[in-house]
Amino acid sequence: MKFGYFDDAKREYVITSPRTPYPWINYLGTQGFFSLISNTAGGYSFYKDARLRRITRYRYNNVPIDMGGRYFYINENGTVWNPGWSPVKTELDFYECRHGMGYTVITGKKNGLKAEVTFFVPQDYDGEVQQVVLTNESDAMKSFSLFSFAEWCLWDAQDDSNNFQRNFSTGRVEVKDSVIYHKTEYRDRRNHYAFYSVNEPIDGYDTDRDSFIGLYNGFGDPQAVLAGKANDSFADGWAPIASHYKKITLAPGETKTLVFILGYVEMPVAEKFEADGKTINKVKALSMIAKYDTPAKVAAGMAELRAAWDKLLGILNVSTPEDKVDRMVNIWNQYQCMVTFNLSRSASYFESGIGRGMGFRDSNQDILGFVHQIPDRAKERIIDIASTQFPDGGCYHQYQPLTKKGNADIGGDFSDDPLWLILSVSAYIKETGDWSILDEMVPYDNDMSKAQTMLEHLKVSFYHIVNNLGPHKLPLAMRADWNDCINLSCYSDTPGESFQTYTNPKFKAEGGYSKVAESVMVAALFTYTGPNYVAILKHLGKDDEAKAAQDAIDAMKKAIMDSAWDGDWFLRAYDANGEKMGSKECEEGQIFIEPQGFAIMSDVGKEQGTDLKTLAAIDERLNTKFGLVLNNPAYSKYYIQYGEISTYPGGYKENAGIFTHNNAWIICAAAYAGQGDLAFKYYSEIAPAYTEDTSDIHKTEPYVYGQMIGGKDAGSDIGRPGKNFGQGKNSWLTGTAAWNMVAISQYILGIMPDFDGLKVDPSIPAEWDGFKASRQFRGATYNITVKNPNHVCKGVKSLTVDGKAVDGNVIPASNGGVHEVIVTLG
Ligand code: BGC
Ligand code: NOJ
Cα angle vertex 750, ends 747, 756, to 5°? Predict the structure, then answer.
């Protein structure tokens, strides 16, 4: 069942029912000011950091769902409604929500009155513009009142949600003309305030929540709106809000447009106040308001936003036999990659914005998905991330975007972290050809006195693995590897202990983690990532170092084959007791997805046919119609020695859920192994556009990936296997976005930046006749036509650039211009 449709020409998903199976959201803003907005206008805004600079309040896990947002209420002769249906939930005569690239348009109609609200954050602007267009579509005069609504958060979202003894007494506002200012703590230590404005005189306002809503009412029946009149209330402590009240009369056919702005302002300390030392200096706010105070200026702002997205999405464009592939590659997957760049894992409808900052591994992987769109910002991001590394190659696992400092609460010792830096730096060089990133001086632990070149950071990353091997010469598993829930050292039997940070007394003397537990996943990631480091060293003429690194990779491959090949697939790990995990010998959890793809892509044991054997085992044991489960069979009891993984009911999250992130590694591996049909099968099982028809089952947005889909074992713990099979969770902020972008564009369609040029090596469904793509790369544009006359999956028979044959399948980088590339498979 569908709840809308794709409007590809406009790059929009059009939601036609407000009762989606879960709130379906969009993101506004790409620089400093960000908003989350659901299809019923729920959500919140923040400046840069969703925890430390939360501007409006939102209630996670609320009943009913999705409460709090920017709401417009209309009261026409006692009929009260919202253009986005919620929170009043009056049935509308028409409802539509269009989520587009950085904007959302919500339209509602009731009794001949149409309200169309456009929400967006303009380029280089610290505010959300909300344009409300009201049209009287009836043939009679209409008089009604309009109320806006935003609830201020007291800046630190964590403190805001628990420190009530203080917070109920700190809220402060100012009202001047049609602007309501949120100046909580501005008098003392904060040099920033927020405002909510409208571009016309108003008939009243409310700034005190309880006066506006009523203590025993809710967002769905605010008493001021029901009464049809504002109270001109003034918040002093308690809960400050901002609501404008305006009486409007429209003749038949008449339209009225109002522009509201929710903005954020930072002030130099010396200029915070007017001469009285108390009143906010509003100069900056007023100039922000003036920027968008007419519909014409709003239209120009929207045009600028569209132009920015045209540019970002113009770099890679494909035309394949599948519409769904085109809309994922050309629009939504690239869009989601930009959102994960901006937000990392901080703020979504599943990530509260107070839990995590930017992850070292997550942010590095995100680079892979958007480096072609904004290489300069990617470089800056890579440097920020690398600055939280330690001199021995270990890393802080997370950092806060506002301070850019490593987060000491979570610390380090996640065994996979350093390797992702090698991958992101390589991806940056492959995209741009800019080797100078290797010469950048980058601090360790944010301490510039300890700075070393980025190349040195790569070296310590690589050797952090080599220097931390266990009894089988495989990398130590430490606190966790990519799978945060396989905690072979931090296992615990006391509720509340974090599986990632808990130090098991058993391993205290050994430095906090077991010197026996080993990760095959990190071993395979090392053999997959390492060759990039070798290629970099060779390019720099450091042949001895390159050879040493290659020897370490070869030794790792041997260790994997000696101790981690289980006969039909690769093991997952050795636990702290030296027992195998992810083996046929195990009672449950016999096969895991994570090591397999990387091992296949680095040819580990290929001469013994490990690649095809492993793919066959994956297909048999892990594949389902909704994607590949992470492990099988699911754990049905608590295995203390594995940590968090078996705390989840079978079929969810890391315990045999369909963890879409690492589905991509198998898609890549199948494509790499020449199995284009298989790769495409796995791709289409999880690609959001393909889930659209089953939105009632999938629940989350059909235009973006989620972290997880309920696996085939979901429900098994309650004797109802298959109960939530196929149900998506944790949409938007996931490494799935970047990796599936890589899987479809670089491995299936095969357009893969390499150190020496643009490689084209498709691995597609045999039935395809071919496809077309245009790719801007290092200043040139390549119009690529792939022909598949013999209906093979893989194998470039010939490649011509502007009619001239090229040996192999790498288009050498050129000096700009537009080039016609013909690739024939066969
Ligand atoms: C989740 C993981 C997540 C981790 C982050 C765990 O509880 O299951 O998916 O990566 O928390 O800290
Ligand atoms: C989500 C985390 O953000 C990511 O870092 C981790 O790799 C996966 N969960 C798997 O546990």
Answer: 110
* Distance separating alpha carbons of residues 366 and 368, to the nearest angstrom: 5
3-state secondary structure of 444: strand
| Ligand in nearest proximity to the CA of 483 | 2
The two three-digit tokens of residue 35, written as one number = 């908003």
- Does 366 contact ligand 2 (Cβ within 6 A)? no
How many Å apart are CA 777 and CA 315, to the nearest integer?
8
Q: Is the CB of 484 under 6 A from ligand 1?
A: yes
Establish whether 807 is a catalytic residue.
Answer: no
Alpha helices in 15-160 (DSSP H): 157-160
Most confident of 245-249, 358-362, 812-816: 245-249
CA distance 532 to 280: 54
Ligand nearest to the CA of 661: 2
Residues 314-330 have a mean pLDDT of 98
From 348, 484, 729, mutation site for ligand 1 pocket: most ligand atoms within 8 A of C-beta: 484
Ligand 1 site, residue 653, Cβ cutoff 6 A: yes
Is pLDDT of 721 > 90?
A: no
Can you tell me the distance from the alpha carbon of 325 to that of 240, in angstroms, rounded to the nearest whole number? Answer: 46
Ligand 1 centroid to Cα of residue 499, in Å, is 9
Q: How far apart are CA 96 and CA 5, in angstroms?
A: 11
DSSP 244-293: EEEEEEE-TT-EEEEEEEEEEEE--GGGSB-TTSSSB--HHHHHHHHHT-
| For ligand 1, atom 12: residue with the closest CA | 484
Dihedrals phi, psi of 170, to nearest 5 degrees: -110, -20
**How many angstroms separate the alpha carbon of residue 483 from the centre of ligand 1?**
8
pLDDT at 230: 98
CA-to-CA distance for 36 and 68, rounded, in angstroms? 11
d(CA 360, CA 480): 13
